[in-house]
């Protein structure tokens, strides 16, 4: 899994080096903001037994940079505050109410390929994501505990998605949906369990 993110970085680097220098010089990067929702969950891998959590609706907001590499390919780099986590309603038939509330400084580095041109243009995007843990809390029975010391400070993931670019006059916008898959185990408390984040994300981007 770790090799996958390394390969993705290499591919994006090669693409950046392969573009025509004249194009890169004539096209400056553009900046914008993004905001949206993350349908977040965890993927559990236990040495014994099974464990499942339910998806939880989380929030994300941040900035975005688009750097044109060619007429059809952009480098999309984001810096955002992104909430992740999950909820637990029951264990083996017993009702329980627990909420996992994590927050990251998320840095996706995506290659974005345009599928058309004009006022409304679809695109696809993929690339690695680097997450830096800001906070980690678990809410149970009305009380909230800080578990940041039990969670690794850095997470590596991979994103794939698609969107539509829309020309709205003075403020071009994008609507984008993506699937986020954690590649690294975020649990730092035991060797008996592996926890990875997942998410289905819907974002609006303005620039």
Structure, briefly:
The protein has 207 residues and is mainly beta. It has helices at 2-18, 21-26; strands at residues 30-46, 56-68, 73-91, 94-114, 120-140, 143-146, 154-166, 173-182, 193-206. The longest helix is centred in the first third of the chain and has 17 residues, at 2-18.
Q: What labels would you give this structure?
A:
207 residues; mainly beta; Porin; eight-stranded antiparallel beta barrel; 2 helices; 9 strands; 11% helix; elongated
Give an overview in words.
- There is one protein chain.
- With 207 residues, the protein is mainly beta.
- Helix content is 11%, strand content 64%.
- The two termini are 33 Å apart.
- It is elongated.
- Strand 2 (56-68) and strand 3 (73-91) form a beta hairpin.
- Strands 1-2-3-4-5-7-8-9 form an eight-stranded antiparallel barrel.
- It has a single domain (2-206), classed as Porin (Beta Barrel), CATH 2.40.160.
Average pLDDT figure: 84
Sequence of secondary-structure elements? HHEEEEEEEEE
CATH architecture: Beta Barrel
Helix content: 10-25%
The amount of beta strand, in percent, is over 45%
CATH topology assignment: Porin
User: What structural category do the secondary elements indicate?
Assistant: mainly beta
Strand order of the largest sheet: 1-2-3-4-5-7-8-9
Distance between the amino and carboxyl termini: 33 Å
What topology does this entry show?
Elements: H1 2-18, H2 21-26, E1 30-46, E2 56-68, E3 73-91, E4 94-114, E5 120-140, E6 143-146, E7 154-166, E8 173-182, E9 193-206
Antiparallel strand pairs: 1-2, 1-9, 2-3, 3-4, 4-5, 5-6, 5-7, 7-8, 8-9
